[in-house]
Design brief:
heterodimer; A: mainly alpha; MetI-like fold; 2 domains; B: 251 residues; alpha/beta; Rossmann fold; six-stranded mixed β-sheet; four-stranded antiparallel β-sheet; 10 helices; 10 strands; globular; binds adenosine-5'-triphosphate; binds magnesium ion
Chain lengths: 458, 251
């Protein structure tokens, strides 16, 4: 029903576009147009689609809660709690849809009938109102087309609002996510002291799990220490950067300064393909190939190596990040103006001297920016760690042992049994928001560094 | 005394020929001006003299260019040594995004000319003085070179070029991005420099060529049409095309 209605509105809008354009051509024969003919089409189409779709959207948002109020009116005298009312409403809906399996009371049956009836009325009303609006707005718009009013401005204003609403939506969603993170995190910090979270060195949320009842506050105290997770996160990111920075930078330099046009044309896309490999693939590559390989080599050297080592996860993550660094640093070095290169060559500098003394320093801010973006990517990476470095939050600086990260722990917390309102579940939000703050911080620095670099050449 | 002697130089960009049998004799410690309409190959010829065409993949140079009897257009030539001897100043000032001091010290560092910090300081000071920039920047040698005005930047580039005491300096429209005052300063500088170095300058300004040069060469469509003493070229050229160009009838 809804689908048909929306399709109808959109088709009508298309039709009115062509109609408006044709009308403009007719007007053209007798008077000067105020805009290109297509603007007449846009004008009609916008007036056709926008009001109808807005009303449709508002209707869809408010209809359910209004229907619900009507249904539950009959139950107000029973003194029910909010949860019980909700349960009843769910049953009514199920019954109306024919999927209810419990025993049917008369009262329930009555409500279901009422529900079906209300829905029917609502639907007809919706169709009627929307049709009325379509007729009204189209005839209004058509009249001003006929009068040959100015068409360009209203269309531009309409487009401005469409764009505004789109960006408003994006901003609101972002704010909503941050606030829901914050909200749950605050609830978590009511149960666990923020001090214990930031400075505690022991992460073992599973032990606070108690069936039916409140967990022991003593246990809570040292179950949620995030230090091992922060340490693990940065440790693995550090290993990754040790792999990615040298290889990425050197290949970036090669691509921008040494590679011929032919090599560059093929090498760059190939390196960028690395960035397109799904992280799960890197994950099992790390878990099944690199991990055992590291273990074998370590054992051969007489070292104690765990099968899930920070080294394996970090190294594979580093490989994943190489294209970021190489591609971005290639871009910033290519952007260094050719006349600086010429100036250096003309002084008798060799290629490597030119790279070292002119191009690299000139591109350095951009390179630092790209590295910071890569770090924030490494810090936020999840799959590889989950699959290759294990889930036990050891506080260790030994790359051969397994360790865990913030992201991996969030996964651990949210895959098993969970209960909303449980501090264990809420701790995921606290971790999420800390991770968000860290990456936000890195990104802000990176972007401001990159911006500064751009200004230098403009 | 001849410093550079080019014979039958042909240059190709890919399959497109940009210079046709150019032969020219550039005299020592004189200013030679190259003039001609846009795209006629002046820059291309200039870049043959310090092998900057090597930087362009598709560029191929044929013929013989001798500097003090050393063949420049040869595979065996040590390009780094050549460029130490033949400096270049570009159309758009291109100081490195480094300090003023580092800009001038760039060449001496690369070629290992200065033995000590004091010696380097001295080279920087002398070069800046020769480029008539010393008084303006002596108190801010550690500021970024790109922060100077356009004319100052160009003089900084000249200081950078002369820091390694080259025998030849090539200038490709060095004043085209500058105002008349800065241009006059550079022209004065060229006059001073020619006591010690051979200068080849490409310019679009007839009056500039007439003011600063002793010899002038006129290029057209990749050919050297006429070459001779500046006075003669401007007052009494042999070739009708030269005459037309100088009097502004085409170009
Ligand atoms: N890098 C290049 N690749 C291909 N062709 C080039 C290149 N540089 C120059 N050319 C061609 O060679 C010819 C001569 O160019 P050149 O730059 O030497 O002219 P010019 O006399 O310096 O002109 P202008 O006075 O505009 O600087 C032109 O036709 C130009 O299109
Ligand atoms: Mg030129």
């Amino acid at each position: 029903m809804n689908l048909i209605l929306v399709t109808f509105i959109i088709l009508l809008a298309f039709t009115s576009y062509y109609f408006g354009r044709k009308k403009a051509l007719v007007i053209q024969s007798s008077q000067r147009l105020t805009a290109l003919p297509k603007f007449y089409g846009y004008y009609l189409a916008a007036w056709c689609a926008a009001p109808a779709l807005i009303i449709f959207a508002l209707w869809s948002v408010f209809e359910p809660s209004i229907v619900k109020t009507f249904i539950l009116q009959d139950y107000t005298d029973q003194n029910l709690t909010k949860n019980e009312l909700q349960l009843i409403y769910t049953k009514v809906k199920a019954l109306a849809a024919g999927t209810y399996t419990g025993n049917i009371t008369n009262f329930l049956d009555e409500s279901a009938n009422k529900y079906i009836q209300l829905k029917g009325i609502a639907n007809s009303a919706k169709v009627a109102i929307i049709l009325a609006i379509l007729i009204f707005s189209l005839s209004f718009a058509y009249r001003s087309v006929q009068k040959n009013d100015r068409m360009r401005e209203p269309v531009e204003i309409f487009l401005k609002w469409v764009l505004f609403v789109a960006s408003l939506g994006a901003v609101l969603v972002t704010i909503g996510i941050v606030f829901s993170l914050l909200f749950e995190a605050i609830r978590f910090f009511q149960a666990v002291k923020i001090f214990d979270f930031i400075f505690g060195t022991h992460w073992y949320p599973a032990k606070t799990f108690v069936r039916d009842g409140q967990p022991d506050p003593e246990l809570m105290k040292d179950a949620f220490g995030a230090v091992p997770l922060f340490a693990g996160t940065f440790f693995i990111a550090f290993i990754a950067m040790c792999v990615a920075i040298p290889i990425g930078l050197l290949s970036g330099i090669y691509l921008s300064e040494y590679a011929g046009r032919g090599v560059r044309k093929y090498a760059k896309p190939i390196i960028e393909i690395l960035a397109g490999i799904p992280t799960v693939v890197y994950g099992f590559f790390a878990a099944l190939t690199v991990g055992p390989f590291v273990k074998e080599i370590g054992n051969a050297m007489g070292l104690e190596v765990s099968a899930e080592s920070a080294l394996a996860a970090g190294a594979v993550m580093g490989v994943m990040i190489i294209p970021f660094i190489s591609s971005l640093s290639d871009d910033v070095m290519t952007a260094v103006p050719q006349n600086l290169r010429d100036g250096s060559y003309a002084m008798g500098a060799t290629k490597s001297e030119t790279v070292k003394k002119v191009i690299f320093p000139a591109a350095l801010p951009g390179i630092v920016g790209s590295i910071l973006l890569a770090v924030s990517r490494a810090v936020g990476e999840t799959m590889i760690v989950v699959m290759a470095s294990g889930l036990a939050a050891n506080l260790t600086m030994n790359p051969l042992e397994s360790t865990s990260t913030i992201t991996a722990q969030i996964v651990v917390i949210l895959i098993g049994d969970q209960q909303f309102g449980d501090p264990k579940t809420q701790s995921a939000f606290a971790l999420g928001i800390s991770l968000f703050i860290v990456t936000l911080f890195l990104n802000v620095i990176a972007l401001s560094v990159v911006k500064k670099y751009r200004e230098k050449y403009e | 005394m001849s410093k550079i002697k080019a014979e039958n130089v042909n240059v190709y960009y890919g399959s497109k020929q940009a210079l046709f049998d150019v032969s020219i004799d550039i005299a020592e410690k004189e200013v030679t001006a190259l003039i001609g309409p846009s795209g006629c190959g002046k820059s291309t010829f200039l870049r043959c003299l310090n092998r900057m065409n090597d930087v362009i993949d598709i560029c191929r140079v044929e013929g013989s260019i001798k500097m003090d009897n050393l063949e420049l257009n040869s595979r065996k030539l040590d390009v780094v040594r050549l460029r130490e001897n033949v400096g270049m100043v570009f159309q758009k000032p291109n100081p490195f995004p480094k300090t003023i001091y580092e800009n001038v010290a760039y060449g001496p560092t690369i070629h290992g000319i200065a033995q000590s910090k004091e010696e380097m300081d001295q080279i920087v000071e002398i070069s800046l003085k020769k480029a008539a920039l010393w008084n303006e920047v002596k108190d801010r040698l550690d500021e970024i070179g790109t922060g100077l005005s356009g004319g100052q930047q160009q003089r900084l580039c000249i200081a950078r070029a002369i820091s390694v005491s080259p025998e030849v300096i090539l200038m490709d429209e060095p004043c085209s991005a500058l105002d008349p005052i800065a241009t006059a300063q550079i022209e004065e500088l060229i006059d001073d420099l020619k006591k010690e170095v051979t200068i080849v300058i490409v310019t679009h300004s007839m009056s500039q060529a007439a003011r600063v040069s002793q010899k002038t060469g006129f290029f057209h469509l990749g050919k050297l049409i006429e070459f001779g003493p500046t006075d003669k070229i401007f007052k009494n050229p042999d070739n009708q095309q030269t005459q037309d160009y100088i009097t502004g009838r085409f170009g």
